[in-house]
Automatic annotation (TrEMBL), chain A:
<keyword id="KW-1133">Transmembrane helix</keyword>
<protein>
    <submittedName>
        <fullName>Polar amino acid transport system permease protein</fullName>
    </submittedName>
</protein>
<comment type="similarity">
    <text>Belongs to the binding-protein-dependent transport system permease family. HisMQ subfamily.</text>
</comment>
<keyword id="KW-0029">Amino-acid transport</keyword>
<dbReference type="InterPro" id="IPR043429">
    <property type="entry name" value="ArtM/GltK/GlnP/TcyL/YhdX-like"/>
</dbReference>
<dbReference type="InterPro" id="IPR010065">
    <property type="entry name" value="AA_ABC_transptr_permease_3TM"/>
</dbReference>
<feature type="domain" description="ABC transmembrane type-1">
    <location>
        <begin position="75"/>
        <end position="267"/>
    </location>
</feature>
<feature type="transmembrane region" description="Helical">
    <location>
        <begin position="119"/>
        <end position="140"/>
    </location>
</feature>
<keyword id="KW-0812">Transmembrane</keyword>
UniProtKB/TrEMBL annotation, chain B:
<comment type="similarity">
    <text>Belongs to the ABC transporter superfamily.</text>
</comment>
<dbReference type="InterPro" id="IPR003593">
    <property type="entry name" value="AAA+_ATPase"/>
</dbReference>
<feature type="domain" description="ABC transporter">
    <location>
        <begin position="5"/>
        <end position="239"/>
    </location>
</feature>
<protein>
    <submittedName>
        <fullName>Polar amino acid transport system ATP-binding protein</fullName>
    </submittedName>
</protein>
<dbReference type="InterPro" id="IPR027417">
    <property type="entry name" value="P-loop_NTPase"/>
</dbReference>
<dbReference type="GO" id="GO:0005886">
    <property type="term" value="C:plasma membrane"/>
</dbReference>
<keyword id="KW-1003">Cell membrane</keyword>
<keyword id="KW-0547">Nucleotide-binding</keyword>
<dbReference type="Pfam" id="PF00005">
    <property type="entry name" value="ABC_tran"/>
</dbReference>
Length: 281, 245
């Protein structure tokens, strides 16, 4: 590009210099306004009449250090459950969305079941599903009953796949009918058109909302502690009760945010990429 | 000689409106038939019916003597013998040019991927787009996309090629490259039915021009006959409104 190009005119050089001055000015203004806001916030919070009491009961470093190992152990449970539940509910959600798109009279009961599934599990509060599965189902005393942890994970998968199925379905329906027409006209069967033409486009389009629901799932996996297993929030609660101090909750909260950052960053990146792809056509 | 395509009394309704009203049309092997007529006269609908993308409300369509509008037959098997190219190209945006072309040969006709690829590349080379094989459709101009769409329809070696206003969405300067490709296909002996607004093109490439009006073929014959000396008042009116074509 550079070699062979004519030398820049005085007007263009002036333009470049002016733009550079402008961007330096913008950076300085941004830094100054951030500093002012930060100082104001610190002054407002630390200058508040009850600040010392709040600091003692929410931000005690010794208690934080004491509670950290238990909370981390709990967090590991959250991470494992998250992976299991995310994979499970994405897979189940996709299957249910596909079942809802099946055509033909034979599949009427399948369609009806899939539809009522999404109605039921999106309507039913998650806590109730967890109670029924972790407390009710073991009461049946069947042979080979899985652990409460697995049952709790199953409750999460059931609920979240209801949401994810609808996200997938929205994606499938957003692919223009002309794409199916083009695929069918080439001789692809309905299933082949779905598999090779509709689904790849649909999944790309709904990747951001799918990941968004996964971020929400990350916080809800902790609800299995209602049935006994100790997750990070439950560990913080126990520690809080021991010390009569709320610092462990703050520790758990910070850890959750740290855990969410990579997922949210991936979501933002995928969204941005999708937007760019759209813009390029 | 039996006709490649034979439509008898084809009737198609969209709600209360009659789009095709007992239409008859026979197309012989190697014949190129141009369908002309105002928007809404049923040109596109007829092509979609032939490709079984729409169900008929009456009448029959035969392909190579076989009744294809029998609801008991498998439409996928029929479509494999008919290629269709749409006004809006309808390329698959998530697949490269090459994958767009090889999808049907590999998935439908179960051909080995390597042979499908080499055939696709040869066809792309022929239309001067071999360098675009790895590109995605959104990186191509409209004329290039439409030529890829035609190649995609050709790669299955169809008995019959349907072209649905394939130049309507193109800039005037891009129309030529698509029309050149269709002229080449005619030289190869491809049987084609095309809906078009390009009268000059219909005149050059078609063996027969059919003027559709109110869901029927009102007038048909050689291009000179229909375009230069139309008998029917409706045809004269339609051609006059197109002005100097």
């Amino acid at each position: 590009m550079t070699d062979g190009a004519p030398p820049l005119s005085a007007v263009q050089l002036d333009r470049i210099a002016w733009r550079r001055r402008q961007s330096i000015r913008s950076i300085l203004v941004a830094a100054a306004s951030t500093a002012v806001l930060g100082v104001l916030l610190v002054v407002a919070v630390t200058g508040a009449p009850g600040w010392d009491r709040v600091r003692q009961s929410f931000l005690d470093p010794t208690i934080a250090a004491d509670a950290l190992p238990d909370i981390l152990r709990g967090l590991w449970l959250n991470v494992r459950l998250l992976v299991f539940c995310a994979v499970g509910s994405l897979a189940l959600g996709l299957v249910i969305a596909l079942l809802r798109t099946l055509r033909g009279p034979v599949f009427f009961p399948v369609r009806a079941l899939a539809t009522s599934y999404t109605y039921t599990f999106r309507g039913l509060p998650l806590i109730i599903v967890i109670y029924v599965l972790t407390l009710g189902v073991p009461g049946l005393r069947l042979q080979g009953m899985p652990s409460v942890l697995v049952l709790g994970g199953l409750a999460l998968v059931l609920t979240y796949s209801g949401y994810l199925a609808e996200v997938f379905r929205a994606g499938i329906e957003s692919v223009h009918p002309s794409q199916v027409a083009a695929a069918r006209s080439l001789g692809l069967t309905y299933r082949q058109a779905m598999r090779h033409v509709v689904l790849p486009q649909a999944v790309r389009r709904v990747a951001p909302p799918l990941l968004n629901d996964t971020v929400a799932l990350q916080k809800d996996v902790g609800l299995v502690s209602l049935a006994g297993p100790i997750d990070a929030v439950r560990a913080a609660q126990i520690s809080t009760a021991e010390h009569f101090n709320y610092t462990p909750y703050i520790v758990a909260g910070v850890l959750f945010v740290l855990l969410a950052i990579p997922l949210i960053a991936v979501t933002d990146w995928v969204t941005l990429r999708a937007a760019r792809r759209q813009a390029s056509r | 000689m039996t006709a490649v395509l034979s439509c008898q009394g084809v009737r198609k309704l969209f709600g209360p409106s009659v789009v095709l009203d007992g239409l008859d049309l026979d197309v012989a092997e190697h014949e190129v038939v141009a369908l002309i007529g105002a928007s809404g006269s049923g040109k596109s609908t007829l092509l979609r019916c032939v490709n079984l993308l729409e169900d008929l409300d009456d009448g029959t369509i035969h392909l190579d003597g076989a009744h294809i509008t029998d609801p008991r037959i498998n439409p996928d098997l029929v479509r494999r013998k008919i290629g269709i190219v749409f006004q809006a190209y309808n390329l698959f945006p998530h697949l490269s040019v090459l994958d767009n072309i090889t999808l049907a040969p590999v998935r439908v006709h179960k051909r080995p991927a390597a042979s499908a690829r080499s055939q696709a590349l040869a066809l792309l080379d022929r239309i001067g787009l071999a360098s675009k094989a790895a590109a995605f459709p959104d990186r191509l101009s409209g004329g290039q996309q439409q030529r890829v769409a035609i190649v995609r329809a050709l790669v299955n070696s169809p008995r019959l090629l349907l072209l649905d206003e394939v130049t309507s969405a193109l800039d005037p300067e891009l129309v030529g490259e698509v029309l050149d490709l269709i002229r080449d296909l005619k030289a190869d002996g491809m049987t084609m039915v095309l809906a078009t607004h390009e009268m000059t093109f219909a005149r050059q490439v078609a063996d027969r021009v059919c003027f559709l009006d109110a869901g029927r073929i009102l007038e048909q014959g050689s291009p000179e006959q229909v375009l230069d000396n139309p008998v029917e008042a409706r045809t004269q009116q339609f051609l006059r409104r197109l002005a100097p074509a």
